[in-house]
Amino acid sequence: MTFEPRRGYQGTTLVDILDRILDKGLVVAGDVRVSLANVELLTIRIRLLVCSIDKAEQIGLNWWRYDRYLVAQEEAETTIARLEHRIRTLEGQLAAQMTPTTERPVPPVPPTS
């Protein structure tokens, strides 16, 4: 006896499901609360995001780039120094824009009769 798959049936494989989840992302959120006699003893908030690294960076999640346990120390120090330099540059530009270049007296408002 041989098994022939039905024609027209298009199955979804685990690879297809994972590809879709990693491409679009999946968020799981929940709260666990333990109470005794209407007194809350413990609250656990669970937030889980499952997506690809590309998708995570696209939505602004890239904490692993700066985690000292995941990144080589030299690379982290270089990144921190570069960011500190950029902040000083931006602060200098902002301070230059905030200071008035020339002080002009404000003309008096003529009285209305």
Characteristics:
38% helix; single chain; 20% strand; 113 residues; alpha+beta; two-stranded antiparallel ribbon; 2 domains
Could you walk me through the main structural features you see in this protein, from its secondary elements to its overall organization?
This protein is of the alpha+beta class and 113 residues long. It folds into two domains: 49 residues, no CATH class; 33 residues, no CATH class. Helices cover 38% and strands 20% of the residues. The chain has a two-stranded antiparallel sheet. The longest helix is centred in the last third of the chain and has 26 residues. The N and C termini lie far apart (109 Å). The relative contact order is 0.08.
